[in-house]
Amino acid sequence: MFTTPRLVAIALCAALNFAIGIMVYLVKLPIFLDSVGTILCALLLAPDRRAAIVCALLAGFIGVVLSIPINPFLPWFMFTVLAIALVSALLTANAADTFRARPLPMPPFVGKVVMYGVVTGIAAAIVSAPVVVYLFGGVTGSGSGFVVAFFLRTGQQLLNSALLAGLTTEPVDKTLQVLLAALLYRATPQAFIAMLRPAQPSLHEPR
Amino acid sequence: MTPNGAIVFGLVIIAATITARDLPGLAAVLGVTLILALAGGRRALTALMWSAGIVLPLAAFMSLVWVGIVGRAPDEIAAGSEGSRAAAAVHVALVCLRLFIIALAIQAIVLRFAGWTPFAFVRALTAPPTLKKLLVLTLSLIETILHAVDRARAALIAAGIITRRQSWRNLRNGWVLVQTVWLTVITIAIGRMSDKWPIENTLARLDHALAAPVAARFVTADLIWVALAVAGLAMALGLR
Known about the structure:
The complex is a heterodimer of chains A (207) and B (240). With 207 residues, chain A is mostly helical. Chain A has helices at residues 4-26, 36-44, 49-67, 78-90, 96-100, 106-136, 144-153, 158-187, 190-196.
C-alpha cells in the first residue's frame, strides 16, 4: 500500500494541510481551509478505496501532529479529521472523474462540489460539537461563537447550540475546501497521478 | 527526558485537565505543569507568555459571548434557571484555565527539546517506521512549500495579481497563489522521486538512519516526570 509515490503524496498533502494555514494568513482570508490536503489525498487515490481512506487519514493526522507546537488545541479535533477522511474517501472520491473531466462540465462539477462539501461539513459539525462543548465550553475563538450565542439566547441547550452553529458554518467552509481540493486535483499533472495508482490492464493487451 | 517520556507526560497532563471539573482539580494539574515549565529555567517565562498569548484572546472572546451576550452559565441553561453573569464568568475562567494548562504543557515540552533537530526528535520516537518516515518527508516538504509560497507570493505581488494587505483582489486571486505553489511542489517532488533520490540513495539512507538504535526509549527522568503527571491526574480525580 505504501509505495514511495504514495508516501510522497501523503507527505505532500499533510504539508499542504499545514502550510495552507500560513497561506491563508498571508493573504488574510476569513476562512480555515485546514483539510484541503486530506480531501485531495482521497481524490488522488480515488480508485483504491482502502488506500484512499488510510492515506487521507494519515495526511490529516500528520498535518495535525505537526501543527501542535503552533496550535495546541488542534489534536482535539482528530475525530473530525477521521470523519473528513472517511467522507472524502467514501463519497467525495466518487466525483474524481467529474473533477478531472476536460472540458470542465460546469453543472455537475458545481453540484458535486456543493453536495460533497455540505455532507463533509455536516459530518464535521456532528463530530466536532462534543469537543467544542467539552474542551472549549461551547465557544471557540472563531466567529461561529456568535452563532452559538444566538442559539443559546433562543433557549437551546449548549450541545444543541454548538451542533446547530456547526451545521450553520461548517458546510460553507467545507464546500470551499472541497472546491479547492477539486481544483488542485484538476491541476495535478497526470504523470504524478499515474505514479500513485496501480497500472490498469489495457483493453488492447494480448491475453 | 526522552521524546517518548515527554509525549506520555503530555498525554497524562491533558487527561488530567479533561478529568478535572473545578478549580482545585485544575490548580493541582497546573502545579505539576508549572514544575515542568520551571525545570526548563528561563524558558519557563517564554512558555508562560506564549500560552497566555494564545489563551488571552480566547478568554476575551469567550467573555464577550458568555458574559456579554448569553449572560448565564451552561449548567444554569440546562436547569432552566435565570442565571447570572458572574456564573458565566466563572465558566469562562475554568475553560480558559484548562486551555492554558494544555497550552503550557505542550509549550514546556516543545521548549525542552528546542536544541534538538526535528529529525533527531522523530528518530528518538518509538513509532512505526512508516510513520517516522512520513513525518520526516512531511517536514522536508513543508520547507519546500514554504519556500515556494515565498517565491510565488513575491512574484504574484510584483505582477499585481495579489496584494500585501487584505483586499478583494486577494480573495479573487488567492487561488492563483495556491495553484502556483502546488504545481511547484509537485514538480519538485516528481524530480526528487525520479532523479535525485535514486541517484543519492536518499530513501534507503533515511530508512537506515531511522532504524538505527537510539540510546534509550525511556530514562529514569521520564519515569519521575510521568509519576508526577499521574499524581496530578490522581489529584484531579480525587478532587472531583
